[in-house]
Amino acid sequence: xxxxxxxxxxxxxxxxxxxxxxxxxxxxxxxxxxxxxxxxxxxxxxxxxxxxxxxxxxxxxxxxxxxxxxxxxxxxxxxxxxxxxxxxxxxxxxxxxxxxxxxxxxxxxxxxxxxxxxxxxxxxxxxxxxxxxxxxxxxxxxxxxxxxxxxxxxxxxxxxxxxxxxxxxxxxxxxxxxxxxxxxxxxxxxxxxxxxxxxxxxxxxxxxxxxxxxxxxxxxxxxxxxxxxxxxxxxxxxxxxxxxxxxxxxxxxxxxxxxxxxxxxxxxxxxxxxxxxxxxxxxxxxxxxxxxxxxxxxxxxxxxxxxxxxxxxxxxxxxxxxxxxxxxxxxxxxxxxxxxxxxxxxxxxxxxxxxxxxxxxxxxxxxxxxxxxxxxxxxxxxxxxxxxxxxxxxxxxxxxxxxxxxxxxxxxxxxxxxxxxxxxxxxxxxxxxxxxxxxxxxxxxxxxxxxxxxxxxxxxxxxxxxxxxxxxxxxxxxxxxxxxxxxxxxxxx
Amino acid sequence: xxxxxxxxxxxxxxxxxxxxxxxxxxxxxxxxxxxxxxxxxxxxxxxxxxxxxxxxxxxxxxxxxxxxxxxxxxxxxxxxxxxxxxxxxxxxxxxxxxxxxxxxxxxxxxxxxxxxxxxxxxxxxxxxxxxxxxxxxxxxxxxxxxxxxxxxxxxxxxxxxxxxxxxxxxxxxxxxxxxxxxxxxxxxxxxxxxxxxxxxxxxxxxxxxxxxxxxxxxxxxxxxxxxxxxxxxxxxxxxxxxxxxxxxxxxxxxxxxxxxxxxxxxxxxxxxxxxxxxxxxxxxxxxxxxxxxxxxxxxxxxxxxxxxxxxxxxxxxxxxxxxxxxxxxxxxxxxxxxxxxxxxxxxxxxxxxxxxxxxxxxxxxxxxxxxxxxxxxxxxxxxxxxxxxxxxxxxxxxxxxxxxxxxxxxxxxxxxxxxxxxxxxxxxxxxxxxxxxxxxxxxxxxxxxxxxxxxxxxxx
Lengths: 493, 460
Hints:
By secondary structure, chain A is α/β, with parallel strands linked by helices.
């Protein structure tokens, strides 16, 4: 009897192989029976509820996560530009459910997405008026983000927007470009100030002003924020407005072709996309999504999507032989720790040598990096970080500009892709002449994140209103690629 | 009657035996010649109420315009379907046209039936090809739910009709329309008779559709391919109206009180569905709800049981059939090009397709009952007879006319005017076939302005 009592108390039971003892088996069998019965009732109830008309039960097993069979606008790419376009499309539909928008994203973990690997800076110090306007509109949006992206019963959005400004340094050779840009920026309404080396030294004593002829500091609407928060804010709001999200990869399109004669007598194939083939992750199954409009916001992979439509695969002299000029370029970001580094008012410093540095958090950490030379582009097959690049190239210029950084420790680093526009390193927004229902919103070459709210609005206006209303992006249209008229920025990072 | 019915039945061998290269040409020509032969029915030579009568089939001034409409519609349906069915394998194309031709056969036999049971059987039989067309060739997943709604709403209404007909047979001894109009008026005093009255009419009210039981219509119209939408809007809804007109002859004097709630539902439905049209985002859904709105007026006209009501109802049925079918064809042309029915994505089409904008304009004007088109004539007659029954109805019908004009204007402005989004600038141009289709819809409407006696019915 005592042995049975002992055996029934779990604490005293010696660990043994999992098998039921006689004593408790009947009670457990009873409990199991009840649980089974409950489970069966639940299953029955679910089955009955599913079989009622108006539900989407079907006798065929459907793969979970399949996109809908039909969508009005399919946005390829679930980065910040894609979700911004989805949000603005839903904002501008006049009635509820006026438009069915689907965002297709290849990677639910966003492990290689440019958005979340970005440093998150926003500046108005560009030389092109359109870039300045885009960033100003976006900064306005970000400052009032909770008026736009609020969701009922959810926490307000906190972007951790540090308004510290950007500080560009120019040498003797490029000071005149900086002055010209300053005039353009002031004309467009950006709040920028030019500083002489002595003013610079007074304001930021930790800078070594050797070789600096002029500096340009952004006073308002510049700084950095958390890209992941912005992406999630757009996504949360867009999904609350009814945007469909699908995790899958766009592997092809089904189009209808027409032959058109262009001005110089050549014949080209004009393709109109009818279906977008979305392949499910880890599966061969794909769903053709019937769509009216497709938006290519795939970032670094935009070139691949364009190739699927035959752009760039035609004869070299014709318009279809010009490939879409966006390709991924790897850029490194290093996190360094320097206890004696510059303080809280550190702006996002960009030296004329190309090195950049900004404060990260409040613990003496800084993000830094540099654009490599054109000839020494790192390998894009993976996102491995090259530490030697920091040691050999970045540190030298960094320590030269900020002497405190001669003593620092690299805590970590990561790499991300720029959706690099090899043509002129500025965004490409508009329709392709050969594919009349694919809009492009890509190729921002490192400033996609900061311009995403305004670009989303511009693309939504293009799709629904037929033209730009807020910011005029006609300069970013694709025809500059075919006319071979690049619009170049005088300073890029 | 047989001179039209036999060629229609011979459409089946034509469809299946013709070489695939000639399929569309031959079926279109065959059905067009059937349509032209059917025009001979319009010449009224009979002294009695019925003409061209055989043992089971006959025509009379009520069924003749509907029969001609049915026969006219088949070549139009085949013309409209040509583009989207072409990519399919040949046998499936033949199957599709077979379904359309079988619908035609059943409809001819339904409208020409002299025996009410035959009418009932043909009424039910039309459900099957329509269901197959909607669920097999529809474009979205929702077509399955649309087919279910369509089938079960109509069936739920028509099973009581079967019982009611059998009871009628018991009490009068015959169900032939030729005879039953001369039968002894029945003693209809008990509650059971009231239920019998409702049983006679519910099936047709569901089919019309009346506002409370209209839910199947937007689903079925939107999910059906273009030929399905055309035949549904143009003819199948009129089956309900026609059935009601035939049945109500026997249902006096109960009708005097019992029509009250149904007329109220019909009038309220005009306003409600008209208002829903103003908020639609899907073009076909807008046209479907406008069909419900017009049919509400027709239902009111029939239930009122006056000569003006009947004439107005028939005129509006014919005119609405042609115009609504034309609107569905136009919506389909936009859908085939942009692959979306959302109105906000296909705007400003006037600058891109000017001639089609003219078709859109005329179709929308006809829909909002512009004089001298028969739509207005039918509506005016129904509104007048309702006013005679009760002056207060003018508030509802007048408001309904206003809302009809509002949503027709909305449809036109949304699709044709406004800034054209960039992705519609390079749409493929219109084919002659599509322009022919619109013209063939519009020419009968305009010709009927000149000779409305053809569709007045027997009341004049």
